[in-house]
């Protein structure tokens, strides 16, 4: 989600790493680059200034040790300040400490993703926490908005407030709370119409709704692509209704996501959740330390491991790992691995979590490599005989033709897969030699043929 | 619609968005002459308006050449800045011209999620109605919940036929049917809505290309226009959006929405410089009449507050 910023900062710090001891000029130069990178990443200007000032203060005051790389020292300071700015370590969950029915109020600009996010939160609360959730749309502005939420409620398998035409948002809110009390709901999610922060009448309306329902959470929904205006929007909503949490949507895009820093700085409210897709289960906790790591090009390894743990068949993974270690990894295993990866989500979203993989991810995006391609590769391997899968070397021209025909692909596709498998086996051998420690230290680049940095 | 009310509405929308910028410029330049510090602050102000670091630097470089060290009044700075920005924007101000002989002129509307595609189509339909053209709408967002119903409401408001298909059906097939129907019924404009998609999702972008391929089976020149709808609150990522959409589906023009908010829309300047694509219209509200032609001088003056 923050690839571009990661890329830029990685570049800055690479330069620092290569030098010897750091002097103040170096720090200042690096910080100028950091400033530009943050601005290009849409972090709002006042927030950037504060950030840079904090880093400078800490960097200059600190004694530069000769023994460790000075670049690393600055990286650590920048990272620490970034984590703090994003809210400190750990994810902050939704506050559900209130008597049922607990109202959750959703606010934000038009098109930020409030309605979809409402559906996602409803699904999460009902599935993970077994809460009985009622969805109520107070959006009387946009055509069919209420119908949209009703359809999402059906998909999520939660209740939705029956639509009554002609009611004002305030009346709908009152009816929602009443219905929830009568029908014993645990949580009521009030999805409001999108409104501009400068629209006095609509801001007054949402204030009244907030006053009438006294929500346990007032969530500001923000598009990760938002630019400098993030500060104005955050301030206006915070002043009007007192934001208790932020949800960043469209984190699956390639926006640099600087709005996250801006929003957090202006409201002081934690970023609680992130949306990363259109499906109702594409909602994740926000972990400041991980996102800071990604911003600084260190990757979200924890996130990757967690995602893997949730989806990957443990026994199967261990079997694969043993085979990798022994160097007896064959096409059969490759197919099994493809299946695991397909389960974990799109390849590009997985790569985004790996250290130093930001550019690689972009290349993959450019090359159109995604789920479809993985499926095609699985088909190719399925069209091979058991012997061919174990000893791919025997696959020559006529076998290739047969495999291509069997899998509905071309000989070129088969060649590409075999080449990829070859590269991968090579990579595994290098990985074994390097060991886990080496991988963490050098990132993906250590795995590239010839040890060359590909990016 | 009287011209006066149009300007006042646009200005009303733009003024709030630029209030802060113009206030700050005033604060900076009534006090001192144009030295390095003043230039740096001016550059910051442009950056804070979403112009981006590169474009802001370019504008400032030009200022440094011509005005460095001079005693300048607030008014002079504003005018010069407006001129500088208007110069960049002027080539982009081209309205979307509908060719009535095409019957129909096919307009494909694309963009990322939540930028205002459906609302823009509703507003366009209204405009064409007022011009005595016959619009027909295709509810091509078969994915998002209630997207079809949203467009149907606009169809009723503008008395335009809305071609629909059941949820999750193939958008390309629906577009094809829409074109067939528009030809048979002699519609002047066919506005095709599409599901919002992030530009970095290759499979979804491929779907858009498929819509175009299928349309071309009936009319090799279709779609005659491909509109990318951009949200004015978008930051620097808009450059990447335009870049990818342009490459994948040959975008012919932009519509910039939500300019009535506090977002300053400075990214439009960066886009004009980078891509030179026409900005056909700007959205300044949720009502049918709130889609305006893009006026670069007005926009630039509004941005700097003259």
TrEMBL record, chain A:
Keywords: Cytoplasm, GTP-binding, Hydrolase, Nucleotide-binding, Ribonucleoprotein, RNA-binding, Signal recognition particle. GO terms for molecular function: 7S RNA binding; GTP binding; GTPase activity. One of its GO terms (cellular component) is plasma membrane. It is a peripheral membrane protein. This is Signal recognition particle protein. The keyword Lipoprotein does not apply. It comes from Limobrevibacterium gyesilva. InterPro entries: AAA+_ATPase, P-loop_NTPase, Signal_recog_part_SRP54_M_sf, Signal_recog_particl_SRP54_hlx, Signal_recog_particle_SRP54_M, SRP, SRP54, SRP54_GTPase_dom. Involved in targeting and insertion of nascent membrane proteins into the cytoplasmic membrane. Binds to the hydrophobic signal sequence of the ribosome-nascent chain (RNC) as it emerges from the ribosomes. The SRP-RNC complex is then targeted to the cytoplasmic membrane where it interacts with the SRP receptor FtsY. Interaction with FtsY leads to the transfer of the RNC complex to the Sec translocase for insertion into the membrane, the hydrolysis of GTP by both Ffh and FtsY, and the dissociation of the SRP-FtsY complex into the individual components. GO terms for biological process: SRP-dependent cotranslational protein targeting to membrane. Its EC number is 3.6.5.4. It catalyses: GTP + H2O = GDP + phosphate + H(+). Composed of three domains: the N-terminal N domain, which is responsible for interactions with the ribosome, the central G domain, which binds GTP, and the C-terminal M domain, which binds the RNA and the signal sequence of the RNC. Belongs to the GTP-binding SRP family. SRP54 subfamily. It is found in: Cell inner membrane; Cytoplasm.
Automatic annotation (TrEMBL), chain B:
SMART domains: AAA, SRP54, SRP54_N. It is an enzyme of class 3 (hydrolase). The keyword Glycoprotein does not apply. It is found in: Cell inner membrane; Cell membrane; Cytoplasm. Residues 104-305 form the SRP54-type proteins GTP-binding domain. GO terms for biological process: SRP-dependent cotranslational protein targeting to membrane. One of its GO terms (molecular function) is GTPase activity. InterPro entries: AAA+_ATPase (IPR003593), P-loop_NTPase (IPR027417), Signal_recog_particl_SRP54_hlx (IPR013822), SR_rcpt_FtsY (IPR004390), SRP/SRP_N (IPR036225), SRP54_GTPase_dom (IPR000897), SRP54_N_sf (IPR042101). Residues 10-89 form the Signal recognition particle SRP54 helical bundle domain. It catalyses: GTP + H2O = GDP + phosphate + H(+). Residues 103-261 form the AAA+ ATPase domain. Keywords: Cell membrane, Cytoplasm, GTP-binding, Hydrolase, Membrane, Nucleotide-binding, Receptor. GTP binds at residues 111-118, 193-197, 257-260. Its EC number is 3.6.5.4. It comes from the Bacteria. GO terms for cellular component: cytoplasm; plasma membrane. It is a peripheral membrane protein. HAMAP family: FtsY. Involved in targeting and insertion of nascent membrane proteins into the cytoplasmic membrane. Acts as a receptor for the complex formed by the signal recognition particle (SRP) and the ribosome-nascent chain (RNC). Interaction with SRP-RNC leads to the transfer of the RNC complex to the Sec translocase for insertion into the membrane, the hydrolysis of GTP by both Ffh and FtsY, and the dissociation of the SRP-FtsY complex into the individual components. Belongs to the GTP-binding SRP family. FtsY subfamily. Part of the signal recognition particle protein translocation system, which is composed of SRP and FtsY. SRP is a ribonucleoprotein composed of Ffh and a 4.5S RNA molecule. This is Signal recognition particle receptor FtsY. It comes from Limobrevibacterium gyesilva. The gene is ftsY.
